[in-house]
Design brief:
GO molecular function: blue light photoreceptor activity; FAD binding
Organism: Legionella beliardensis
Shape: globular
CATH class: Alpha Beta
Strand order of the largest sheet: 4-1-3-2-5
Number of domains: 1
Structural class: alpha+beta
Protein name: Regulatory protein (GGDEF domain)
Helix content: 25-40%
Pfam family, one: BLUF
Number of strands: 5
CATH architecture: 2-Layer Sandwich
Strand content: 25-35%
């Protein structure tokens, strides 16, 4: 069995974060993920986070424990943790996508998903659909 896993969770930021704060958060995550050989994606929309972590199970579990202890967010919900054959976000130690009402990506996601993106209500099936969307080059162009 492969030791390559992905873990997907959602949470709520305790306060709204602007683009500068999110960029700094992503920089710190990139540094830590580089050390632990993790890749992934962080999506932020309407004060909610959706994050994918990819890598060795032991590293993912260690980082996820630290995420759970981080007091910048709450209502953390693990959507899935399962083995994967290969990484989807291998190009990024931590990619960042900010989705706001006037962003091009929001409309493209709505068109792709044929419904409005709602991270608050996201479940395991939605997580898979969002993951599938961002595995496509069209959406990867929006990852910083």
């Amino acid at each position: 069995m492969s030791d390559l896993y992905h873990l997907i969770y959602k949470s709520e930021a305790k306060k709204p974060l602007d683009a500068c704060e999110l960029t700094e958060l992503a920089k710190l995550a990139r540094f830590k993920n580089f050390i632990y050989q993790l890749s992934g994606l962080l999506i932020y929309s309407e004060q909610r986070f959706f994050q994918v972590l990819e890598g060795k199970l032991s590293s993912i579990e260690l980082i996820y424990q630290k995420i759970e202890e981080d007091d910048r967010h709450e209502n953390i919900v693990l959507l899935t943790k399962e083995p994967i054959a290969s990484r989807t976000f291998w190009r990024w130690n931590m990619g960042l996508t900010i989705i706001d009402d006037d962003s091009d990506i929001k409309q493209q996601l709505v068109n792709y998903m044929q419904s409005n993106i709602n991270l608050a209500a996201a479940n395991k099936n939605d997580a898979g659909f969002i993951l599938e969307a961002f595995s496509r080059e069209t959406f990867q162009n929006y990852i910083q």
